[in-house]
Amino acid sequence: MPQIQLAFQYTFGIRIRFDMNLPGITVNRGLGPDLTEINKNHRTHFHLIGVSLWHKKQEKYLPIKFTYYQDGLDAIFVEDPANFHRNYDLENIQIGDLQIEDLGFENPDEEVVRKALKSLPEEKLKMLELSDCMEIELDGKLFYTILNMEDGNYIAANKRGSIFRLHHDREEMVKKIADKPIDFFEIYKGDKEDLDDIMEA
Questions:
Q1: Average pLDDT for residues 6-20, to the nearest whole number?
Q2: In this structure, what are the phi and psi dihedrals at residue 179, rounded to the nearest 5 degrees?
Q3: Is residue 130 left, alpha or beta, with left meaning phi > 0 and alpha meaning psi from -120 to 50?
C-alpha cells in the first residue's frame, strides 16, 4: 500500500507519516545533541486512552488512542488519518478517565539491524548499542544506528551491513567507512574515541 509522507528536517529528521496500512499517524523524530542523552533514560512504552476529539462531520466526540515510545508521542490512532486535520476540531478536546496500558515492546529497528549484522560474532555485537537502534532516513536511504556518538551523530548500518558515519554538521552527512560489518572492527575496538578521526573526516 502507498504511504503519504510529509517530511520536516531537524538534525536527522522529524517525519510525520500517514501509513495507509495502519489506522493512524506515526511520528518519527530525530533528536538533536542536547536531547539524545536525555532520551536514553526514557524506557517507558504505553498506550494513552481517555482523550476524545470533536468530529466535525459526525458531530460528536470520538476517542483517540495515543502510543508513546520512550515517553515520547509515537502514534495517533484514528480512522482516515490523511484527513485528520479536516475531520477533527483540534481545539475541542475532551479529557475523560485517562488510562495507561503498558506495552511489552520490541524495537523493530533492532531486528532489522541484527539481520544486517548477522555475520558478526556475538562478542562483536555486544560492543554495539543495538537495543537503542533507530531508523534514520537521509536522502531517501535508510540507516540503522549502532553507536550513538553522544553529540547528535551516529555510526549506522544499512540493510546490506555496510557501515557509515552520520554527521549532521558536515557537508557530506553520510560517509561509508566499511563495506562489511567485520571490517568496522579494524577501526573500533570498543572505545568511541577510536572513531574521532572518522567522525570529523
A1: 42
A2: -75, -40
A3: alpha
